[in-house]
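ugh finaly. both done.
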Amino acid sequence: MSNGNFGAEFWFTDIVDAEFEIPEVLSVTPSNPTRPTYQNSHHKTVDAHTYEGEALLEPGTLTVQINYLSGSDVDLKLLAMLNYKSPKPYRSVHNAGATKRKISGTAILTGYAPGAMPITGKQEATLTFQASGAAVHAANS
């Protein structure tokens, strides 16, 4: 049985190393690490190509869907973070039964994409982060 996700949080670190919560989170998609491979076939390989796994994992990307709040403090921080090239700490907090768990690591904000501006309803934005290094899964403390 899976956990209900209501109450998820996402935190990022700004240019002056202050952690801030990104408000109005609608969804968080954690990074999905993958193991790259390389082909090690040679002229005496038979039947099919052979492969080996690379030593380092590709940490993947993570996305956060939010309600877009144009001109808000967080909007301005996120726009500034698009110009910052070095990885910054992040953490997402989610339900885990009767407790909370977190996924933390470092990432670079690579995309901040406000969606359509509908006549009625709300505007949303998608944040895309490139994870840098391995994520840590632990109890939220």
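ok and the 2nd:
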Amino acid sequence: MKANKYNRHIQIAILYFGVAALLGLLLRAYAVFPFGFNYKYIVHGHSHIALLGWVYVALTTMLHYLFVDRKVFSKKYQCLFWGTQGTLIGMLLTFPFQGYAVSSILFSTLFLVLSYIYTYHFWKNIDPVHTRRKSLRIVKAALIYMIISSIGPWALGAIMSTVGPESVWYRLSIYFYLHFQYNGWMVLAILGMFMYVLERLDLELHQKTFSIFFISINLSIVLSFLLSALWTNASIWLNILAGLGAMLQWFAFVRFWSMIKSTVFKLKLTGKQKLLLKTVVILLTIKITLQIISALPYFAQLIATYLDLTIGYLHLTFLGVISLGILFLSDYFKLIRLSNLSMGMYLVGFMLTELLIFYKGLAAWIKWPVFKEYTTVLFSGSTLILFALAILSYQNYRKV
């Protein structure tokens, strides 16, 4: 397949990102000038298009571009890609208007099935040149976590028909899905592709050195899921195991840095790429630190009480670590071109909204006042993100 087709596929992913941002802006607008729509339905549409439209399409496109044998006839991949787009458009036309209903559940179910087929297709058609690469092991683990995360949505149907949406199992199944999507599938896929970049610069790792990292990162992913269950006020052992998972994640990334630091400085990056990479590293450090803090019983209860702290963390991970990581890699592989204007607007909008969301959560905790223009400024910050993505889409559409 020609590279420009992959460029188009990344552009489609960015369009989904823009749609998700537009739905997010609609949610922000509700507090500024309320109008008639079902808020919960829009949340469902926003989250599905963000995770499955933007991130899934971008990651699977890049993984196919980097690791799949180019001699393999691409018709199967094309069918998978466009079939997936059909399910995403179906979700976009149903979730915001119906929430979880027969049609939206059908489209999301079909999406899951196609994601399994993609994983099988990828696994069977890996270019033999990558067989011994450490980056491939990380990417394979990422795909496994993507499959594992789908246990959450499958479980929802059984939970809804038995114990109902008010049970703790309903929330836990959603958190299970989100955790293994964010911390397993998405972060590991980005990490694997970054390792691929370094391996092209002749990064060589001893098997034992890599194994320590690989085992620790996988253990941390599994154990840190317990952070999502601390709100249930279970045994203190849950806090201990969750804290161990968070600490292991810190250890794993420190280990990762020690493995790659000599090779990282050989990378020939543009100024924008350097800024993006440094930003992702800083945000990832903040993310892991927040996870360690959240294992402490007092802060676990605090986070469960003040929803804005949870939303701030999720947006930090998704809009920061994951989305900026994808934009960095897409630009590095020349699948898109980032302009100073689009990147600057995105970063300002992201930082402004993050500060405001976390401020509101902390203000509720410490009993600080929330200034009168809060919702308007938050809406404006979200507008910047949408405009940045619109500019990015337009500029790249003209260049390909």
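summary for the 2nd one i guess: The chain has a mean pLDDT of 91.
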